[in-house]
Amino acid sequence: MSSPAPALNRIRVGSAPDSWGVWFPDDPLQVPWPRFLDEVTQAGYQWIELGPYGYLPTDPVVLGEETGRRGLKVSAGTVFTGLHHGPVVWEKTWAQVSNVAALTQATGAEHLVVIPSFWRDDKTGQLVEDSTLTARQWRDLAAQTERLGREVRERYGLRVVVHPHADTHIDSEANVSRFLDATDSDLVSLCLDTGHYAYCGGDSVKLIETYGERIGYLHLKQVDPEILAGVIADRVAFGPAVARGVMCEPPSGVPALEPVLTAAQALGVDLFAIVEQDMYPCAADKPLPIAQRTRQFLRTCGA
What we know:
Order of helices and strands: EHEHEHEHEHEHHEEHHEHEH
Largest sheet: 8 strands, parallel
CATH architecture: Alpha-Beta Barrel
CATH class: Alpha Beta
Helix content: 40-55%
Strand content: 15-25%
Structural class: alpha/beta
Number of domains: 1
């Protein structure tokens, strides 16, 4: 009989609307937010992210009542940014960020997940801009992200954690390393999404061991290697890739999550590990059983 996995007592596990097929504030293909809250509780999670701004109630009193009576707490809000475009996009960016940050702060959460904008259309695959940044754009990305980290911390008391993501300029090991080396560790941390990093060829354990002090948050996700190979061969955009099932239920994909969690535990800091299995679009009855099985699997890993 195998011994149980050691307890990961620095890891706080949660889930997110993403694991219920929610990508947009309002969409007929998505489950209504009360059902998400009911089912994420039923699945055994106590922590959630806000998801796309406007999906959950944006009135902090209403949101607090709805999460509180279900025993749920919020770990983070999320924003998309295009900060490599430089100061010209600051006001537009801040208008979005301030709304999300205010709601995130009101929930008692301490993190703001920042996702870079896509270089190709998420549905059609049409190029929106070059997939490679110029040296000037890299400098703007670093400087504006540091500015965002400073402003969000000073005005809302939140910590910015930047999320490497498929079809963005912060994706591969080389680009993630370049971004981290170019930014101030006091202002900018990383939200390591294990699925996206594997999607782009990265090794999550190696990243944690190399840049441990920069890891501020985790998203737990796996990719199906066979489907990913087809996605890469066919140059499929991320949205259609998800529809193919490229993000799969643990533990059937890569990377193995137990070594990732063990490496994160070894950092000796408290970390959120939020399950995010991209499934848009999906049948309304599909997410709950997967979420329940995933939560049970993570318990076998000690989380």
